[in-house]
Amino acid sequence: MAIIVTHDHLPPIGTPRPAVTVQPPHAWWKALAPIVLALVLALIPPPGGLAPHAWYFFAIFAGVILGLMLEPLPGGAIGLIGVTVVTVLSQFVLFAPAELAKPGFKAYNAALTWALSGFANTTVWLIFGAFMFALGYEKTGLGKRISLLLVKKMGRRTLTLGYAVAIADTLLAPFTPSNTARSGGTIYPVIRNLPALYDSKPNDPSSRRIGSYIMWVAIATTCVTSSMFLTGLAPNLLAIEMANKTAHVSLTWTRWFVAFLPIGILLLALIPLVTYWLYPPEVKSGDAVPKWAGEELAKLGGLTNREITLGVLVLLALGMWIFGGDYINATTVALVVISLMLVFGVVSWDDIVKNSAAWNTLAWFATLVALADGLNRVGFVKWFADTIGAQMGGFSPFTAMILLVLVFYFTHYLFASITAHVTAMLPVMLAVGMTVPGINVPEFALLLCLTLGIMGVLTPFATGPSPVYYGSGYLPSRDYWRLGAIFGVLFIAVMLIIAVPWLALIL
To answer: Distance (Å, rounded) from C-alpha 254 to C-alpha 35?
Structure first.
């Protein structure tokens, strides 16, 4: 097989190191830096109006976030250490957030209940389910078959593969309120099999050949489609209820879609291309690949019973995610399908037990959800929002609106759940905006709501499918954080530049 590989001048973002370069996996400074940051912040006197225990909690949270960025240990281990530190310290007067306690609970019981609360989060288990779906595609060979079909039709150029991923997500988004189910459970299991066709391996320098490019296009795309459709992200529905109750602003499906449409079209067109420029795949094109894919499909022969069974189960899950949202939770659907996969022998229990990436992601995201929830419980998020609101005096209505939208958007760095962000921040930001004389409240409310999907691109834990792609092995921590920041700025800049005049025209 002859593959044409072009090596353009690569920008510094995520440039792959030569194979001979070896760095110690656990440099001592990476382990020390999060501890130092947490201690330094804890020693600084708490800001006015913030309880000491809330400031200490934020110090630990900041240390955990830095640890996740530097990765001296796997993400699951860092999250576990973080909630353990809070659990232990909460037993002492120095660090006793009453918000973690419930009537009748002793302090240590309340803290432990809080620490384990993330493992009861439905999104966490939906993410785990997405990994199991991917396992089924791998074990049955159905993922390879579908991948070969994609490569045969669109594999002549890597760029067209990026657009194929974007189109697939966009078609599913209006009917799938869970972006984890849509991208993590449907798109990811298919594209996960594509890199291997080009000998692009996870956690390896070869990951940049094509795997890294495809994975980033997929997660960036689902963030845009989550903002494009009211029914493309479950927290969107929660947001319109809060906008109605807090600001008396009514947002319909059509108004939402029309408001974001020009932004979404532009961003969906840009994502594969901008990623191709900033995070270029080494494999640009391969004239012999479609022919080779056809030959491989011929070798596979007809569909096997296990492939057909998995295909039926996946269609069942997709149908329930699209049409059964009012009757059954998306996570329940995933658990049912996983159980059926076990019953019909699509995967074995040993296969599930040995899937270390899935279990690591489960522990990592569950502990981080608990930490983010604790940040809200101790009052840090409310204090932060109130502090920003107090600084709005003297700004023009337009300037205040833009600043508040930016604050709302970038504070998502503090959250591991868009639902938690909506619950904690949206009512506060709406209330702050309504105190600014002359502000256009319907426009302001809609701007805040439209950011919910695109803010999911910021971090490896910003939205449901993020940990799935982060755990794929094709997006190293350094690359993910840098790309997240770049695309995060690009998304909000495009939205504000287009949305402000567009909303003024249509509202």
So the answer is: 49
Reduced to 3 states, what is the DSSP secondary structure of residue 445? helix
| Alpha carbon distance 365, 371 (integer Å) | 10
DSSP 180: I
pLDDT digits (tens, 9 = 90+) for 312-359: 998 888 788 767 767 888 788 889 999 999 999 999 999 999 888 788
**Signed CA dihedral, 50, 52, 58, 62: sign only:** positive
With beta carbons less than 8 A apart as the criterion, state whether 400 and 113 touch.
Answer: no
CB atoms under 10 Å from CB of 202, counted, come to: 18
Q: At what angle do helices 356-377 and 380-390 cross, to 10 degrees?
A: 60
Rounded CA separation 298/137 (Å): 19
Contacts of 291 (CB under 8 A, 6+ apart): none
User: Tokens for 295?
Assistant: 């030959």
Q: Phi, psi (5° rounding) for residue 464? A: -50, -55
The pLDDT score that the predictor gives to residue 281 is 93
Calpha distance 98→50 (Å, rounded)? 14
pLDDT for residue 289: 58
Closest CA to 157 of 28, 61, 284, 33: 284
Q: Of 467, 449, 149, 92, whose CA–CA distance to 303 is shortest?
A: 149
Collapse the DSSP code of 283 into the 3-class scheme (helix H, G, I; strand E, B; otherwise coil) and give the result: strand
Show the CA angle centred on residue 88, arms to residues 102 and 94, nearest 5°.
80
Q: Write down the pLDDT at residue 14.
A: 40
| pLDDT recorded at residue 23 | 43
Cα 314 to Cα 33, 158, 215, 361, distances in angstroms: 44, 27, 21, 22
Q: What is the pLDDT of residue 9?
A: 36
Which residues does 154 contact at the CB level (< 8 Å), separation at least 6? 160, 161, 164
Distances (CA, A) of 389 to 241, 285, 348, 384, 395: 22, 52, 54, 9, 11
* Paired residues of 95 in beta bridges: 92
pLDDT given at position 98: 54
DSSP per position, 189-239 = HHHTTTGGGGT--TTSGGGGGTHHHHHHHHHHHHHHHHHH-GGGSHHHHHH
Residue 255 structure tokens: 């108004």
- pLDDT less than 50: residues of the chain: 1-25, 93-94, 96, 288
Would you tell me how many other CB atoms lie within 10 Å of the CB of residue 211?
27
Nearest to 210 by CA among 265, 171, 154, 168: 154
Tens digits of residue pLDDT in 252-269: 888 899 999 999 999 999
Q: Could you tell me how far CA 106 lies from the centroid of its own chain?
A: 35
pLDDT computed for residue 237 by the predictor: 79
